[in-house]
Fold:
Amino acid sequence: MRWLLWLLGGVILGGIVHLVTIMLLPQAASQDAYARLTPIAAVNTMAALPPPTPERSVLPFLDPAFAAAVCRYDLSEAPLKLMVPVSPWYTSVSFYTRQGVAYYAINDRAAGRRVIELELMTSDQRALLPGDEEVTSADRLIIESPSTTGLILVKTLAVTPSAAPVARGVLTAARCNPQPIGSD
Structure:
């Protein structure tokens, strides 16, 4: 009976150590997505990602049917203005914190326009915005970032391999630029 208690205690302790290790591993990893994208994308600029291959992919789980671009953002100086033209097939924009937590996503169907246009800022920067009664939420899409740094991933579907240049062309027109508060 005594060895069963020791065995049960060992299993419980092993489970706790396993869970703590799994929870702390993302913070301890030195080559997270943000770090891997440093040589490809400058801060606050949009950069096209190379197409994924079975042997190599900059980010995990990228679909080869999509052209992708990324913007590593830093909101410490100013909010960010994001403009992404939509493709004829499908375009999506996803927002991630520095730690890889997704906090917002929008696609061309939800945007309902030919260009997905929005402003990304921290809650402190949003508090500095002047209260303009003439500007409604339908006129101006503002996303509050939970962190000052993170990633914006833009993906565009290429329905056939011959449509890939069109999808990449949409991404070359995408912009993410700092925009001081109060300027349009």
Observations:
- The radius of gyration is 21 Å.
- Residues 31 and 37 are 9 Å apart (CA to CA).
- The chain has two domains: 1-30, 33-178.
- DSSP finds five helices and nine strands in the chain.
